[in-house]
Amino acid sequence: QMVVKTFMDMDQDSEDEKQQYLPLALHLASEFFLRNPNKDVRLLVACCLADIFRIYAPEAPYTSHDKLKDIFLFITRQLKGLEDTKSPQFNRYFYLLENLAWVKSYNICFELEDCNEIFIQLFRTLFSVINNSHNQKVQMHMLDLMSSIIMEGDGVTQELLDSILINLIPAHKNLNKQAFDLAKVLLKRTVQTIEPCIANFFNQVLVLGKSSVSDLSEHVFDLIQELFAIDPHLLLSVMPQLEFKLKSNDGEERLAVVRLLAKLFGSKDSDLATQNRPLWQCFLGRFNDIHVPVRLESVKFASHCLMNHPDLAKDLTDYLKVRSHDPEEAIRHDVIVTIITAGKRDLSLVNEQLLGFVRERTLDKRWRVRKEAMMGLAQLYKKYCLHAEAGKDAAEKVSWIKDKLLHIYYQNSIDDKLLVEKIFAQYLVPHNLETEERMKCLYYLYASLDPNAVKALNEMWKCQNMLRSHVRELLDLHKQPTSEANSAAMFGKLMTIASKYPGKAQDFVKKFNQVLGDDEKLRSQLELLISPTCSCKQADVCVREIARKLANPKQPTNPFLEMVKFLLERIAPVHIDSEAISALVKLMNKSIEGTADDEEEGVSPDTAIRAGLELLKVLSFTHPTSFHSAETYESLLQCLRMEDDKVAEAAIQIFRNTGHKIETDLPQIRSTLIPILHQKAKRGTPHQAKQAVHCIHAIFSNKEVQLAQIFE
Length: 712
Fold this sequence. Notes:
Blueprint: H1 2-9, H2 15-20, H3 22-28, H4 31-34, H5 39-56, H6 65-78, H7 90-103, H8 115-129, H9 136-152, H10 158-165, H11 170-175, H12 177-189, H13 191-207, H14 220-230, H15 239-246, H16 251-266, H17 272-275, H18 277-284, H19 292-308, H20 313-323, H21 329-345, H22 352-361, H23 367-386, H24 391-397, H25 401-407, H26 414-428, H27 435-448, H28 451-479, H29 484-498, H30 505-518, H31 520-530, H32 536-550, H33 559-571, H34 578-593, H35 605-622, H36 630-640, H37 645-658, H38 662-665, H39 667-683, H40 686-699, H41 703-711
Pfam families: PDS5
InterPro entries: ARM-like, ARM-type_fold, Pds5
Keywords: Cell cycle, Cell division, Mitosis, Nucleus, Repeat
């Protein structure tokens, strides 16, 4: 300890003392001290030797190369003590590190033939001891020590480079985050010196195929990714090698390079595509690769690229267009996923062309692709039109989606029709909205649809109503005594219902019918569900109750239950009940009075009124009982008095379809309605007159008297 203090206090100018203590300096490097079994003695000797190199610099007192090698390997071994910051001796270990870094003592080793062995040992030691209990000073001295060896030497050998790069490999990175950070900063600091060595390593492995040059050869792509993230300049000469690899004859090799470059081009802060256009163009060429996994990987990359680099969308569009017609189903599917994922993040990331590719795929020959395209468009519509998450321009950009999706109802495939119904109930007019909000959504949707989409929607309601009638008739058959005729009728009805569903629907429908026959409570729940007076809220409870009864906890995926739920959702009044019709009529009244949000919703009041009445007319066929309230009829009377012939005709038609109980239940409405119908029959247009007569005939018991009064 006394010797340590003596050397610690001595400086380079003390010539007399340097001479006086030279024998002691030489003596301390003897085997007795370098191999001493006592740990503390070895630490103190190492501190003395570090100070001796400082005092006698630039000439060390040790002339034998073997002795110098022994001394530096000895000092390196002592640096392992830095690991334990809680050790009482830690300050001495820190002093040793600080001294070595400050004096650059290890640079003496450049004269030695096998200096590389010392440096490798030093680097490995420092990377192994660094941990999260060390402060910044420890890291700084380690960096100074290692960077001086890299920058002042004649080049970095492969083994020394490996001792740095191994800390970047994912397995090691996760094991010691501090070693990764140390390697990262070291590479940043020495980028110009170390870059040629890195280039040589990758050239040996990637171009010449000499994997034996390093134990890290199998991790080259992981290393390139990490080095690029640290500083792209570390790979200046490596990128052309990757271009060479992209053209490899081996499909798996091309796939590995595509995966790597996808990460490099796609990462958020990367400007590689603009900095290295030849490599970018070569990479884009892989979208047309003969190897399916390579094309698939390229398409998956496009999503990240669109989100992180919108400026590259133009480059990607042409390649995605070709891939959207790829013979492989999985690739066409992933093109849709790519575009929709980016669109959901931000609609401005996908141009009209890209959305057009998704639109085309709604007619793909494969169901999986069609389904992905339809669902993707539905999600975009809900986000940007329904919730207006990005303003009016974004809503306008995807306003065509509603029409396109409904047009698909004209397709022959049952799968397509069922998906359109599902999309309508979940995305176009979400059934879980409150009644007023739901009807406002339906009112303005109907007013803004093109004629073909309106026809498709009307057809959809008609089909659902028909299915409801079939189920009602099936339940009626269950009430009748068992007979051969009854069984035959029931079988026919089951086949009709099954024909409205894809796959193994027949088996499932038969099974459901069997359950209905055995469970009276289930039948009464289904009766309630298809009852004309069932409200949307009651329907929701019924569907959940029936599904709960049929669920099997031991069978998480139950195709039978899924089919039954689908049947129930189609026949349940998820959108329309008395409350909903009342809300619709109120909306129309507001349009008539000029107090509605028509212009804000993008339709004129006239269009809204006409479309609203057409909508009510269609619903009067499918849900007549829901119209039966004084409030609804009062509003319809107001429409009857309007000068617009089409509006009046639609109102008469609604009365004709729904008014069969007006005479008995709503005398006040009856007394107002009769004079108006008389007037329309006498002085209205020929079509109105005809409609008025039909209306009287349909809803009044003393029709002969009423008609006689008209014909007078």
